[in-house]
Amino acid sequence: MFEGKEIKFIAYSDIHYDRLGARCVTFDDCAAIERQVHQRAREWGADFTLFTGDRFLKRDPEDEIKTKADFVLDEELAQSVKPHFHLVGNHDWSDNSMKWHTSESLSKLVHSNTTVVIMDEPRTYHGFSDFDIHALPADHNMVTERYAIDKEKLNIFVFHDMVKGSFSNDAASHAFTDGIDLEEIDLPEFDIVLAGDIHVPQMFPFKSTQGGYLGSVLQRTKADANKARGWLEITALKGKDGWQLTKKFMPTRNFFTRMSFIVEPRSSFEDFIVAEEDCVDQLVEVKLVGRKEDVDRIADDKRWNNYVDYYNARGLDVLREYKTEQAYEIVDMSQSNSVLDDLSLYLSSGFVEVSEEDQTKIVKTVERLSR
Asked: Which among 107, 95, 76, 65 has a CA at the least distance from the CA of 12?
């Protein structure tokens, strides 16, 4: 029915509008990136845009923040005739009540030329005649019977929740033990699965479909420093064997930069250069590692402030990690025949400094315990 049909859309997630986040990310930062998303959608000719939850950082955002954020999206959608689908995330439910959410006002935008579809119920939302979005908002259980599958259409499943076995960090060293079982959403009826909630972009090890976490559309915390965050551009082409999908990740700008330096006894401040491009309009964290006297000497240099004054960094934090040098002595225990011999050899080795008086006390104690 739709052979040869091409569908293009942009998906993004977890923008978390707030007045200020993590000492660095401002409301204007979020607004600028959301505008980039929708400007790109118009330039690229996307058929629709999709947001997978958590529009605000707080469940009850300040009225000013909410009004301004709604205005940003309203202005962008007013320049388009393509629909915008908005999934309700856990931060979108007011007070976690699931009775009212902060996205309700988006469906009433008065200046927009397009339709805003708020997906706050676990069911199928019909797009154009050639695609459907099957939504699982935050805090709802997965029940497959809720979804009406038309195999001819492009079937997109979206949800906002944790998945067991998914990772909370880019190093993939911490996996979630709670959440949705992967098997519940790994269904061949879905052509692609897109998720919000976890800020780290990652693919799920699906066997029957494809997809994963979009990740946050921008860096939110220091943990995101030097890590790619952004949106996904997806093209679906209908062929004889079904829909063929291509995905392109579009990174957004850095807000955090982290770096680490080893400090040696002969090190000078000039040995630790932070590139200008790693400073401009970013929060910078520099960790110095070495002996205390060497680290403190470099860390206390007032020239670190120049990176803020001259390179317009949003701030620069110098962290200190002290490494203590440990001396190791080899004690020959081959002539030892008893616990007391062991102790005597150990004390005479010079590995520890113990006064003669204390040595006498220790020896007497060992003698008494050895009887």
From this structure: 76
**Rounded to whole angstroms, how far apart are CA atoms 168 and 198?**
7
Per DSSP, the three-state class of 104 is helix
Dist. CA 58–CA 51, nearest whole Å? 17
Whether the pLDDT of residue 316 is over 60: the answer is yes
Q: From CA 88, how far away is CA 74, in angstroms rounded? A: 18
The total number of residues written for the chain in this structure: 371
Residue 343 to residue 345: CA distance in whole angstroms: 5
- The three-class DSSP label of residue 361 is helix
CATH homologous superfamily of 6-251 equals: Metallo-dependent phosphatases (3.60.21.10)
* Cβ–Cβ under 8 Å, residues 52 and 194: yes
Beta strands in 68-204 (DSSP E): 84-87, 116-119, 123-126, 131-136, 154-160, 192-196, 202-203
3 state DSSP class of 84: strand
| Residue type for position 291 | R
Dump pLDDT digits (tens) for 227-240: 999 999 999 999 98
Q: Kindly report the backbone phi and psi dihedral angles of residue 169, in degrees, each rounded to the nearest multiple of 5, phi listed first.
A: -135, 160
pTM: 0.83
List the alpha helices (DSSP H) in the chain. Answer: 27-44, 63-77, 182-185, 292-299, 306-309, 339-348, 356-370
- Give the C-alpha distances (Å, rounded to integers) separating 202 from 2, 107, 229, 286, 359: 30, 30, 11, 27, 61
pLDDT in tens, 239-288: 988 999 999 999 999 999 999 999 999 999 999 999 999 999 999 999 99
Q: How far is CA 221 from CA 58, 200, 254, 292, in A?
A: 15, 12, 11, 28
| Spatial CB neighbours of 83, under 8 Å, sequence gap ≥ 6 | 48, 49, 114, 115, 116, 117, 127
Collapsed DSSP state (helix, strand, coil) of residue 211: strand
Spans of all domains in the chain:
6-251, 256-322, 339-370
Which helix (H) or strand (E) covers residue 257, if one does? strand 256-262
CA distance 169 to 162: 13
